[in-house]
Model the fold of this input.
Amino acid sequence: MSYFGDIYKGIKTLLSGMSVTGKVFLNNKNNAITQQYPDNRETLKMFDRFRGEVVMPHNENNEHRCTGCQKCEIACPNGTIEIIWDRQVDPETGKKKKMIDQHIYHLGMCTMCGLCIEACPTDAILWAQNYENSVFDRTSLTKVLNQPGSKIMPGVED
Amino acid sequence: MKIALNITKTIQDLLLGFMPEGTASILAMVIIALIYLAIFSVAGLMLVLVERKVAAWFQLRIGPNRVGPWGLLQTMADALKLVSKELTGTVKADMFLYNLAPYFVIVSSLMALAVFPFTQEFQAFDINIGIFFLIAISSIGVIGILLGGYASNNKFALIGAMRSGVQTISYELSVGLSLLTMILITGSLQLSEIVEVQKNGWLIVQGHIPAVIAFMIYMIAGTAETNRAPFDMVEAESELGAGFHTEYSGMKFAYFFLAEFINMFIIAAVAATVFFGGWLSPFGITDSIPWLGVFWFLGKTFALVFLMMWFRWTFPRLRVDQLLTLEWKYLLPLNLLNIVLMALIVWLGLTIQL
Done:
């Protein structure tokens, strides 16, 4: 009797499939995933895991968390990140230590692989969720991530 | 043979006032044909839009929403674009057959529309072998597909056309036999007569179990006959490009496209007429206003069209061997059994009469 059993099973599975799509059809009004992009650019927020570009967040005292360890530069597979650093005397302790001068990020070369962010031991760099990254001139894709005059946040290196 | 020309008669009587009888009848036919052409080319375009909107809603998208309010004019714009496009073709195509094929497809699907009773009086051609005419006409369309694929000198198109031949010839049987099951109750092939019988309850109620089985078989086979997903191996995009109409462009492509949607309407309209009482309202609630029948007929038809779209956006495409297994090992034997069951029920008078 597996012939009729197959027919019963076939109809049952077809109906269960149709019930799944039917429920989606009826409940789609609230969560249509299409974004009508140029119309809603003021309100459009990208989701948390979106990889727009690499940024270095600074706090209100113009301090960042980058120690200049260069792990991101080594982790980057295509040389997107360049760190210009030198040894300077720390005014508080009087010892010489490694400090970054410029954390240079070439957005034009970045493949958004995220290896630098995984490699960073102090969470100094993060993904931003911005999405309008086109520019008219290639040179403006080269960005200096640390703000001028910024310094490392105290306590990060401990 | 008694042929009642109900709406044709009105126009014919109007024309008889100022011209001889022969001219009047020919002119009346032409006028009716033009009215039907105009209505159904617009209806076909609207069905394309409905299909796209329904597909969007099934996939959590928005769908066409730029041209006109809610995108209602999108398919009109598409049709205008297709009219203005260049007609291209392959070099070594058989030009005569290549150009003929779209007309076979579109003419056969438009011919089938003539026999539907939209409401009590609104029927262009009430032939006494209505269902038989519909089955016969709907099989002619496949010739156009075969010719189109064969003549366009393209391997994909040829494979698509051959698959279409296999598929349509197989599933013709199930469509015919499932309608034959219902004919056992009505005892008539004339569509107006079939609707008349259903005043005692729609046939799907009258015939209960075998009628439901016949309806399921009819919808499966009908979906296969219109070459729609999950039976769309004729134009399986991932395998064959566009299948039999790979080499067609512009308006000839639009004919194939329009014919597909009009065929879908026809399959749904036959199901609405034979199983769900055509223009009859449920429990006779609007029997006093005959012209409301149009809305009941179209409402039932569009509900069934939606069911076919639901199939399309739920089920994955079948392989050729699975398709033929489904037809020859399952649908056809079940159909034959079902006819015997229905014959027994009609013989013993077990039909449900409301």
